[in-house]
Amino acid sequence: MNLLIGGHNYSLSCADGEEVALQRLAAIVDQSVASAKDMTGGLTETRQLLFAAILLADQLETAQAKGAGQCQAGCRTYR
After folding, report:
1. Is the pTM of this model over 0.90?
2. What does the CA dihedral 39, 44, 46, 52 come to, rounded to 10 degrees?
3. Which pLDDT tens digit goes with each residue over 55-69?
């Protein structure tokens, strides 16, 4: 399936039935990329994605510190 993130198309595959979840996650990443772009200005695409990943990792770490977001045995995997 194709995902639009940061104005660029990316082709990913997932298990049947996980398309909606992958689209939802891609929308979160796209929003983070947009935030990174707004905060930092003229970064390259690679640096925008890096900054977005750092923002998301910070959010994840905060959620885990609060005891939320624990991954159960059924975690999804994407390629």
Report:
1. no
2. 10
3. 999 989 988 888 754
